[in-house]
Structure formats: structure tokens, C-alpha cells
Amino acid sequence: MYITNASRGLPRHRSRHLGERYSRWAARALVAALVISLMWLVLAFHLNGQWMFALLFLVLGASLAVVFTRRSLMSHRYIFPALAGLGVFVIFPLLYTIGISFSNYSSENLLSEERVRAQLMSRSYQEEGAAFSFALHREGDLVRLYLEAEASSELDEAMAGQRRFVTSPLNLANEEARTIGVQPVEAPPQAEPLAMREVITARGTLQALTLVTPEGVELRMAGMRSFAPMLDRYEARDDGSLYDRRDDRLLTADQETGFFVTDDGERLTPGWPVAVGLDNYTRIFTDPDIRGPFLQIFVWTFVFAGLTVAFTLAVGFVLATLLQWDQLRGKAIYRTLLILPYAVPAFISILIFKGMFNQNHGEINLILENLFGISPSWFTDPALARSMLLIVNTWLGYPYMLLLCMGLIQSIPRDLYEASAVDGGGPLTNLFRITLPLILKPLTPLLIAAFAFNFNNFVLIALLTGGSPDILGASTPAGTTDLLVSYTYRIAFQDAGQNFGLAAAIATLIFLLVVGLSWLNLRLSKVKV
Amino acid sequence: MAMVQPRSIRARKLGAHLALLGFVSLVVFPLLLVISISFREGNFATGSLIPERFSLEHWALAFGIPWERADGSVVQPPFPVLLWLWNSVKVAVVSSLMILALSTTSAYAFARMRFQGKAPILKGMLIFQMFPAVLSLVALYALFDRLGQLVPWLGINTHGALIVASLGAVALHIWTIKGYFESIDGSLEEAAMVDGASTWQAFRHILLPLSVPILMVVFILAFIMSIMEYPMASVLLLDEDKLTLAVGAQQYLAEHNQRWGDFAAAAVLSGLPITAAFLLCQRWIIGGLTAGGVKG
Q: Which of A128, A142, B206, B271 is the most core-located residue (most Cβ within 10 A)?
């Protein structure tokens, strides 16, 4: 172990060669360029109002600048890139996830409040009772559209005389969206109106039309017989609330739930994300539709990880003791064949098993059918689906245990077995009195790591069962073979619900568990730094 | 061995061989089956391990060549397998090289230098590495979604995002390389520094050439991990021609349209190179894997 010249207090090495100086300047220019582009990102995110991301890149850029300009942080320059990767793609997403878990961020509460407001303000409605009936009158190759206010109410009747309009001649073949002015007329055009059949043929063109009266009222097609004025549905009030013109009611922004609500509590979607405190966590533990499936999946996750470790260890250990037997021939070939499941990419072997376990065409059921006349439904029966997962995962995972055990058994001193042989100990005595006790201790941290890995074995579940068969009565997507990770993934990314807040809360709980496991692991393995 | 063996030992050896052979056949059966299925005619053909009705249809489709059946109908390849494989390899090579660069420089600092916060940083990295990426996918998706609006090649549905996102997973590699560096005596570098070399020069010209074997191992490990990466690719990539093999392959066995035969050919085609690479380098890979953590 040595220390850099700088930290030893010796004069810093100065390069005498021109080339080295150039490369030093090039390195400085690169760092400067990186800092500048990061600061540009900070500015852009800040202008977009995404302060979390702005902060992330501000911290990144600032630490880059500090580490690469201060001479006392020479050593940190070497670890900075890796730490930056870890920070941006592991730690930041983690903090962000924890942050989301205290909000109601979901597919319903997705946009910011301003965007929601803008979206609502752009909504329009057609006023009932103020509709115009229309007719199409041919004029050469073109067609004039004639509008007449419907005499549905007394008011309209009184005004009917002044409510007749006609457009300039139109080409019905043109289906582009157009805005066209209409002129008041005294009487309908001379020609006979077109038949309903022809109106229906032209409806694409008619639906794309926006007609504007001289007073500036916009009319759009409201049915096969009428055009009606389009009005802005919501009107912003100074106190931040919205007035709903169509239904004549007031909507106030509720910052507790992130929705616009009416006085009697009706919600208007979409909403915006707001902080909801511990709501997501209390839902997990109190809402029966979530607590039931959650607890079931929680228990199954532990059972799955525990049994996987137990099975793979048992198979791997037995095979390892067999392969350590000096007098056995062909060990190299056995070894290579036995670690094959480890060498084949997991996403391929899992899919192979998915095909093999297929109820109707799968090879496994064909064999069972021929031998015993049974054809188990591996994917629809919860217990069978779970056994299938354990079988497949044991196949996938035992080579790792085999390799671990072989390495550990090799490190046991041979003379222990010789002493045992002198004392008349058989193979079983050797196994239980010498081999097992000696490898169990170094194996423990690795077993915990394997447990944590299988606890989060997302790929297996996602590719083999996708979590199905489903748990009945769950309000979120939840399956009997789901692990906590795949459950979280499905809440966040599957189906319409997309409840990111709830998914983040479960993810945070899993993280606490995983931290506990890895802390235990570090304690047991006594990692030396 | 020239010694005369007692009967019981011979019987036990026979038993051990039988048990091992039985187990090996159980293990190898699925793999042989897939090879066999890839040569069978039709998508749901059953039968013995050696195909009775031999056909290259699935293989032609896997290579992207339209196949003309005996009755004259032409079958188009269902999925661009070779493109997926190329995507996977491209992403894996670039991200492994970047991971290698990041973890080598940091491992050097951790192995050879003394600085503040070294022990907590090393341990903290291990703990954070245990947190599966699946759980922070929402955050990663949001990050790349926003980033993509400013830097298009880092957005959703780009390979750039997938490559960059893999840079978080360096802790295990740092530990592996650090262990190797520590096993190399530092006196050579010290001698060079006494003669006026800078820290960087000592690292670049003396330690690195000595560590080529472990760098190879870490590269292969990172490459395999990247090829197998599923959760992140499944969320970040959307278009069919952008998918990596790990995400694309499952489309063969979709709920209502299982192309078992086509899948088999594609699986053998894409799985064989990876398996062969693993077996060829197993001596080094296994050392790295069993020392650090679990295959991911």
C-alpha cells in the first residue's frame, strides 16, 4: 500500500514531455465540457419545473467539478465515475421511489396541476336546445350547407326568423378539418336537399367542419340532423376554482386528494399527484383487499426463497460430495454436464420449461399421460404452479451450490478423513461429523446472498407464470405465484390501475428487508476492506 | 489404481455412476429436447428425441429466410431474431466496456490508495447492489423519459438508455478486481513512482498489463449479465426492432399463439454462442462468480 505524492506532501510530479501536457489539458477540457453540459441539463430541468432531476444533475455536476479540481481529492478521481453511476442509476432511483411512496402518483394522478388545468380548460361541450338542423343543397358539383335554428323552445321560435345560415359551396370529397364562415340568409336554397343516404356518406367531411357564425359562435356536427354550438365547458375563477358551465356547478381544487371536486364530493379525472403521507403504507396493512393478497404473497416469497435455497443446496451438496470422491472416474465430464443449466442463459431455459410444462402440448404432460394417465394443469392450479416454479428454479440454481460446495470441500484438510478412516468412520460419519460442520460456516453468507437473490427473482416469475393464477378478490393485480417484486412490477406497469405510489411503498418495504439481509450478510462474512 | 478393491467399494462406485448418469440425463433432457424440436416439422410436433419428420423450416425462419412448405405456401419469419441478437450483443459489448473502465479505475483506488470514507463506501456499494433494479423501475422510467426530452439518444426506447442504466451495477466487479489487484505486489509500481512516474502512469503502464486475465473475466461476466438483463429492457424498450433477445424471445410463447418449434430454433441459435462462451471460460468465470455473489 502506498500513497500518492500529493497526499505525502511531496512536490507533485511535473511532466517534462509536451505530449503529456497536451493530454493533461485535454483531460481538463473534457471535465469542463462535462460540467458545462451537466449544468445545461440542470437549467433545462429547472425551467421545466422538474426540480428533483435538476437537483440530481446539480449534485453530479458540482461534485464532478470539485473532485477534478481539488488536488487533495486525487484518489477520489479514480472512484468518481463508478460512484456517479451508482448514484444516478441506483441511489437516486431509490430515493425517488421512496419519495413516490408518500404520494398518490398513479395513472390517474399523473400530470402536474397546471397541465390538468390546461387540459380541463380545453374541454368543450355542445349546448342542448341551441342546435341547428341542417340540410345539404347541391349547387353544380359542390354543395351548400344550410342551417336553420331548431324551434324547440319558445325562445328559439321567436328568433327562428333570424337564425338561418348558409355556407359557400363546399367540396364534399375533401375530408380535411376546415373552419368555414356562414352567412345569414332569408330562405333555404332553391335546390332540393340531399337524401339522408347521401348525408351519411358525407359524414366524414361534415364531422371535420367547424362553422363560424358572424357573431363568432363555433358550430360543430352534433348528430346526423344537427349542428350545435361548441362552448368552453369550464371557466376559471379568480380563487382557483373552476365553474362547470354545462352542469352549472363549482369545482374546487382539492390538494388533499389531487382532484377537482364538486361540493357533493364527485371527482373529476384526471388529477395531479399530491403528497398523501403514510396513506399507501396504511392501505397495505389495513385495506382488506390489499392486505390479504399482500400477506399471502409475502409468505410465499419467503417460502419460495427458503425452499429454493434448501433444495438447490441439498442437490448441489450431494452432487459435490459424489464428485469429490477420488476413486470416481470421468469427473470432468460429469462436472461440465452438471453445470450446463448455469451456462445456458436463464431467459432461454425458463422459456423452454414454459413450453415443456404446457398442459396440452408439453412434453412433461405427454410423459405423465403415457405413464400414469394424468395430465396436471401446471399453470392454473396454484399448488401445481408453485411446485413447477420450485422444480424449475432448483434446476436453474443447483449448479451454483454445486460449485460453491466443491470449492469448500476441496479446502478441507485431507488428514481429517484419514484420521476418521483410522478410527473406523464410514462415509456417513465423514459427511455429518467432518464435511458438513466445516463448510456450513463459510457457506452461510453465500446462502443469505442466494436467499436475497431468489427473494427478488423477478425474471423467473415474469417469464414462467407471470404471477398467475390470480388471487380472487384482490383489488390490485395479484397472483398466487407472484413474489413481492413481481407483484410490485404488476401494480406499477400492468393493467389500467398503474398505481405507482402503492408500488413504491411496497418497494420501500422490500428494500428495508433486503438491507437487513445484506447487513446480516456483511456481519457474518466479516468482509475485510 | 493397482490395489485390489473390496467388493463394497466397487458396488458403491457403480451406484454413484448410475445416480450421476440418471441425474445428468434429467438435467440434459430439456436441452436435448429443444434441439430435437427445432428440427421437427410443425409447431406442435411430438415424438422421439430423434425427429421422425426432419425439417429445417424453423431454422430457416430463425435466420430470417422465408420458408416454402411442401404444399407451396410460404411462411414468413415471425420475429427478427438475428436483429434481437445483434441488439443484445451491441448493448452488451458497449456496456461491458464501460463497466470495465469504471470498475478498474475505482478498484485501483480502493486497492492501492488510502483516502477518507473508503471502508463505508465499499460496504455501502455492496448493500445498494442488493436492491433489485425491478423495484426502482418507475423512477428509472421517469428519469429516462424526462432525459429523453432533452437528450434524444438517452430517452425511452433507445439502446443508449439501456447501456447507461447498466452502469449502476459495478460494485461486484469492483470487489473482484480489487481482490486481484491486492494479490499483486505493489513494489513494482512503487519503484516506478520513485523513478518519477505519476500515479496514473504506474496504474496504466505497470498494473494494468499485469491484470489482463481478471479484466477478461470481468468483461465476460458483465457481458453475460447484460445479455440476460430482462426487467430494465422490458420497460425501457418498446419497438419490436429495438428489443433485446431476453425481452423478445418470450413473444414466441405468447398466451394464445405458442410457436414452440420456431422458439426452439431461435433458442438454440441464440443460446448456443452464449453457452459455449460460458463453458470455454468457465474456469475464470466460476472463480469470479463464486467469490462475489450470485449469477443475475
A: B271
Environment class of residue A407 by beta-carbon count within 10 Å: exposed (0-12), middle (13-18) or buried (19+)? middle
Kind of pairing between the strands at A259-261 and A267-268: antiparallel
* ipTM of the complex in this document: 0.88
For A463-490, how does the pLDDT look when each residue is reduced to its tens digit (9 = 90+)?
999 888 988 877 788 899 999 999 999 9
A351, pLDDT greater than 90:
yes
| Each residue's pLDDT tens digit, A107-131 | 888 888 888 888 888 887 877 667 7
Please report the pLDDT score of residue A463 as a whole number: 93
Give the residue from B258, B275, B39, B276 showing the smallest Cα distance to A348.
Answer: B275
C-alpha cell belonging to residue A418: 484419514
Q: What is the pLDDT of residue A160?
A: 47
Q: Give the CA distances from residue A346 to residues A244, A316, A464, B228, in Å, rounded to whole numbers and listed in that order.
A: 56, 18, 11, 7
CA distance B68 to B52: 20
CA–CA min distance B124, chain A (Å): 10
Cα angle: A66, vertex A69, A72; to 5 degrees: 85
The backbone torsions φ and ψ at residue A144, rounded to the nearest 5 degrees and listed phi first, read -100, 140
pTM, rounded to two decimals: 0.82
* Measured distance CA(A514)–CA(A493) in Å, rounded: 22
User: B-contacting residues of A 35-54, CB under 8 Å?
Assistant: 41, 44-45, 48, 50, 53
Torsion of CA A318, A324, A329, A335, to 10 degrees: 70
Whether residue B28 lies within 8 A of chain A, CB to CB, comes out as: yes
Q: Are A109 and A116 in contact (CB under 8 A)?
A: no
Which candidate in B18, B23, B79, B131 is best for mutational testing of the A interface (most A CBs within 10 A)?
B131
